Amino acid sequence: LFDLPPEIACQRLASKGVPPDRFGREAKDFFTDVRSVYLDRALQNPHRICVIDAAETIYQINVKLEQIIINRLF
Description:
The protein is mainly α and 74 residues long. It has helices spanning 6-15, 28-44, 58-73; strands at 2-3, 52-53. The radius of gyration is 14 Å and the shape is flat.
């Protein structure tokens, strides 16, 4: 699960000039609630769902993904 606070997601989209679609025009509370549900599922299923902090750099995310994959394979 690539976790990113809604505020940061909105900032990233705005900085790229991406106009909000129908889904993107939902209220902030909607995205906060959806995020909460996904994080709860991850807590309930740690053997199935890994949470990655998507606010980190691409490099940091890549390192964490490699670690997760290696740990799951061996």
